[in-house]
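Lay summary. Proteins are chains of building blocks that fold into shapes, and those shapes determine what they do. In this project we predict the shape from the chain. Here is one chain we studied, written as its sequence of building blocks.
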Amino acid sequence: MKSILRSGTSSLALTVAAAAAMLAACGGGGGNNSGAAALLLAASGGTGGSGTTSPSTPGQTDPVTQTTPPRQAGLVYQAPVTEGGNGGSVVKVAVLAASGPVTLTTAPLATDAAQALVAKLVPGNLVDWVAGSTADSVVTADQAADTFNVILRKGSSAAAQFNLARYGAAVSRRGDEPGPMVAAGWVYGKTGTSVTVGDGRVVTADQAGRPYNPPIKRYEESYTLAHDVKVYNVNTADYSQSAASTLEALPVTANYDYATTSRQAAYLLFDQNYKNADKARVVAIWYFTPTSTSDGKPVWDVPSNSPMLADKGTDPVSGQAYVNINATTPTTAPYARSTEPFEMVKNTMYYVGDNEVASYLLVADMGTPDDKSDDKVIKVDAGWPNSGYQYWKNIELLGLDPRSVTDIWLTHGHSDHYGTVVEQLRMMDNAGKPVALWASKEDVQGVKADLQGNTFDIAGALPASETVIRARTTNFYEYDKWYDYGNVKIMVIWAPGHTPGTTNMLFKVKNPVDGQFYTFGYHGGYGFNGLTSPTEANGWLRLSYQHGFSYLQNSITADFVSPQHTNQFPIVEVYQALKAYNRDPANAGRQLTMMEAMQSKVYDSPSINGTKITSEFANQLEKRRSVASYKASDAANSSYKSIETSGPFKPGRENGLTAVPARILDDARIVQGFVGPQNKNPAIPLLANGIVTATDQYVNDPGGYYVQVSLEVLDNGPYRGFIPDGYTQFSPGLNRSIVYKGGPVESVHAARGTIRPPEVLRTQRLGSLADAVRILGTLQKGATVTLSLTPASEIVVPADPTKTFQ
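And here is the predicted shape, written in a compact code that computers can read:
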């Protein structure tokens, strides 16, 4: 690959943030980014690549001549009307356009096409169209319903939307050219020639308290105004009262104080597309009254309730300790969850999500210097629907280009993970760049069969309303195999539980510093929501959820954790602690990277033969497995019913099994109970005691041990690795019977036994590592043993632990 360093950022390295309509549902230190930047630029058509020219820096774009007039844009401020008869209906709509207020009229349309257009032309919608031969006419599209396209939807809400000028929503493409840029956000400044827009997010100090001078405003930008910029005051309480205004009358948000809840929202339209961003001028501003209202809460780069906030004091507004304040959901307050992006593996793996839900960027190089066609930029998960502006800016802040993404891999069908997919697809469409969308067939189309050939008819998690995602999905995963992209390899494992089509992933990433591959474990459906108590529909999901954790613990050796949610593993705190360490003048001569800040093994884990037995990944898995499995959950949460107390139990094991034969299929391993402090790293002061996340700490049990083994239970019972449809079972915890819908458990894997797919089972809790070692010493792969099981399929440990397996 040709090396093209992307250097610098300009004042127009734009960030203001686009909230595509809400979809329903659930630093490393330094380093030269030239290799990654080169690939990203090449993939996006930059210098040295084929296709349309792309800027080599955010602020230095190559001028592009617009050969076809772009689509026009304006904000609908009155309800459209239809007129006509047998010859067809014309649609008339009043818009506030860059050229001035105008009532646009279509050609006569069929009734259904006219109705489809009316549905788009809602007051408050920013729309685009192709101008007709007169100022008040429009060109009818081949598909009449596409005559107008919706760019942003304001509606009646006073909440702000955020959209990058350079990235995110824009005027639709026409011919061979992207449409002009659009921005949205809160107004924080103006002069006679410029306007400043952002999301109000200001970072004043690092986690150690050392101030930033000046404070960091990651998602704020200033734009140059056209000399004849049109300004409109848009009344969201009554759009028909909207009117032309002036720049002098444009209100500005008073200050950046989070307690200042009145924020002035605006949409902005530019005269150029992203390829001419450095020459772009704002030609229209629509500012909204009444003003938007923020949530009035403090915001941090670390997640809500992070122990790193324990020393920050008390919020003078609410009177609560900062550590006890829960941030507002990103669907209504995306600014509350942003965080700084960071490099995890030099030039190859990056964190680009927010401080609640993770998203990763993998820059894959197949190693063919003269052929970039097989290189990839893979974005894993798409985050919250209103937060796209953060993700695009985060990618840019790392020196990369969001339009260079070649593949989007989704882990499951909940909106906090697919939320910006449609926005990114539209951004890529506008740029004329292809992108592959990957997902599990089971969440997109539903579970029709498992890998053993059993058939089902289970709906996937992706809502039926997500027609664009369903139509645009290009690839369904093949499970339990490595996708080889040179310096990046990915394995996808089907792991139902959180959703029917949840997937776990392993990222094997080559570190260019030492040439070694490191494996990152990614559990793609960690949430227990929807599974807290057995129901007719979730019984099989509860068992499969539990199985997925044990399967990973026994089958996978991961060097590091790449969590899906940051409140379950402190990846963001690790970076923030690292940054504070590197900013300490005392450490100027000993700068560290994320590879040195992240821990592979639990620091306080016991060792056997000099090797710590518990990895950070296995420990993260154990936390949530324990929540699902053990009766401690029932005691800690009144709404929780564990598998131990309430089932479902595998068919035929309602009363347990006594002295049944089983064949040992692996070398087994010792699993330690969950260790609360995660990523303890004494080399970094803020990680010296590890990070104890607030969620589910009742499962903390570092003194407990289990022997976990893959085996085939050789009894004649009915269980065959799945729950059959209509299976009825009594739930002791609920004191009633449940008729369960069927679904796969171990049968999500292709491995077959003589009777049923392999199970990964564990012993009852052991009070000492010594007992676990003694039991492990009795096991031999391939041997047939006799064991007993509890109703929850735990291996019974007798008074003499060495007699557990006979």
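What the prediction tells us: The longest strand covers residues 220-235.
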